[in-house]
Amino acid sequence: MGKVYVFDHPLIQHKLTYIRRTDTGTKQFRELVEEVAMLMAYEATRDLPLEDTTIQTPVASTQTKILAGKKLGIVPILRAGLGMVDGILNLIPSAKVGHIGLYRDPETLQPVEYYTKLPTDLEERDLITVDPMLATGGSAVAAITVMKQRGAKNIKLMCLIAAPEGIEAVQQAHPDVDIYVAAVDECLNDHGYITPGLGDAGDRLYGTK
Ligand code: PRP
Ligand code: URA
């Protein structure tokens, strides 16, 4: 069963409060999502392997650590996942970015796939799938299934807010995938929205409502 990591860092929690608030406008919402994604990526990459290297400082030669060169990839689920990408790229500029386009049918709540473009060497990469919202889990489960069909072997899922239902769906469908979130909320409402949540992440990021 995949583990669930809930990041309780004060900066993440503080920024998430402002992300949730109705009176937070599009510009600030977008900036905060990017910042929280960066802070979460810092925590979610703690297990990256290091190797020794010998360097020359202006004072002496010394042995220090560098990343062992593991190839990384970020896969946002369009559209709202895009809002998390730049924050993560600030920390890991060499990561390749794949895209999976899915939207949730408002009636059936089922994910509808409309676009996929992923790095060709997917099987060699440690991948972080990103989407601000994990509600029913249908979109994340479908995105991870697409990635595995294309050869992905090592996948993490990073979301700002999850509902318990979404966590369970991902754990059932993809028990090898660890989930990283800033908050686990109470439940889904009758329209499949996370409660209390933050509303529609895509609309709030891009001002489409
Ligand atoms: C939202 C969100 C997730 C999905 C979560 O996207 O960004 O992708 O819903 O719901 P689920 O866990 O029940 O599948 P939406 O379908 O609104 O598309 P958008 O990002 O294009 O706005
Ligand atoms: N998608 C969103 O953007 N928000 C929710 O609460 C659920 C799905």
UniProtKB/TrEMBL annotation:
Its EC number is 2.4.2.9. Transmembrane segments: none annotated. It catalyses: UMP + diphosphate = 5-phospho-alpha-D-ribose 1-diphosphate + uracil. The keyword GTP-binding applies. Uracil binds at residues 194, 199-201. GO terms for cellular component: cytoplasm. Binds 1 Mg(2+) ion per subunit. The magnesium is bound as Mg-PRPP. One of its GO terms (biological process) is UMP salvage. Its cofactor is Mg(2+). Residues 6-208 form the Phosphoribosyltransferase domain. 5-phospho-alpha-D-ribose 1-diphosphate binds at residues 79, 104, 131-139, 200. Catalyzes the conversion of uracil and 5-phospho-alpha-D-ribose 1-diphosphate (PRPP) to UMP and diphosphate. HAMAP family: Upp_B. Belongs to the UPRTase family. PANTHER family: ADENINE PHOSPHORIBOSYLTRANSFERASE, URACIL PHOSPHORIBOSYLTRANSFERASE, CHLOROPLASTIC. This is Uracil phosphoribosyltransferase.
